[in-house]
Amino acid sequence: MNSGIYDSLQESIAGIIEENGKLTADNIIELSGASEELSLMLEQDENMAESLAKAFTIVETQGLDAMQGITTATLKALGETETLATMYTDMMASIENFKPAVDTMSGIDFIGQSLETMKGMIDSGEYGNAQLHSYLEHFFGEGSADSVDEIIKNYNKLTRWSKNEGRNFWTEASAADALIGDSTETETISTTFKTGNLSSIKIAKGLTTEQALEQLQNSMHITEDAARDYLAVLTSHSLELANTLKENDAGAAVETLVKTRQE
């Protein structure tokens, strides 16, 4: 952005900031009466007034060099949100948070129903049944029903994980470790599981739903759908985890939004 507008109005800007602590959009509109270039900018984009108010306040308080890092995208990002808190609120209303179902335990119910159907087919020796293959591929992906050994192995794995309404999945070291990943900073999250040693679980600081799902898929060799189902089991038994993921998801969305607007 051309700093000439700032230079020509610097005295007036300095006076307003000295009196009020900052510039407002109304101040910019008033100042445009003394600057043809500024007036032209506002004619092209009336929302630029708020952006310029914040940008000129930064320049006046931090020095003209600060102007070099202000791009048009940054100006628009500044103008469209009053504070980061407002941006956070806006993003919470628009980002796609983890919502596997109205009842988050419906995923584990589906797994249970699937297992019941698969058991009947396996007991009858129907290893070539297309429905059996579809179920296994839903949870484990392509190739999970390529042989009788693969079918039995994956069926038994799913059966073991799904006991105790899916709690057993989280007793697997690989599943629990997936929520930490490569992070060296962790936090302990409490759960309401009544059995086993799952009164708490460790997760990486800043863990997002997207990261949790991706790491579960890689660690447990399951599909995203299966990862969502089992993560739902955990979040439904931990309000702390559910809230932590929401906060981290929103924070990551804000960070992405700011970076995108600055490019």
User: What radius of gyration results from the CA coordinates?
Assistant: 27 Å
Helix percent reads 55-70%
* Distance between the amino and carboxyl termini: 14 Å
Strand order of the largest sheet: 1-2
Task: Bin the strand percentage.
Answer: under 5%
How many structural domains in the coordinates?
Answer: 3
Overall average pLDDT: 77
Globally, the shape reads elongated
- Please summarize the sheet with the most strands: 2 strands, antiparallel
Alpha-beta classification: mainly alpha
- SSE order: HHHHHHHHHHEEHHH
Number of strands: 2
Tally of helical segments:
13
Task: Characterise this structure.
With 263 residues, the protein is mainly alpha-helical. The chain folds into 3 domains: 4-80, no CATH class; 87-97 and 167-263, no CATH class; 106-164, no CATH class. Helices cover 63% and strands 4% of the residues. The protein is built from 13 helices and 2 strands. The chain has helices spanning 4-20, 25-31, 36-44, 48-62, 72-80, 84-94, 106-123, 130-140, 148-162, 173-178, 209-220, 224-236, 239-262; strands at residues 186-190, 200-204. Helix 4 (48-62) packs across helix 5 (72-80) and helix 6 (84-94) packs across helix 13. 33% of the residues are buried. Residues 64-75 and 80-103 have low confidence and may be disordered.
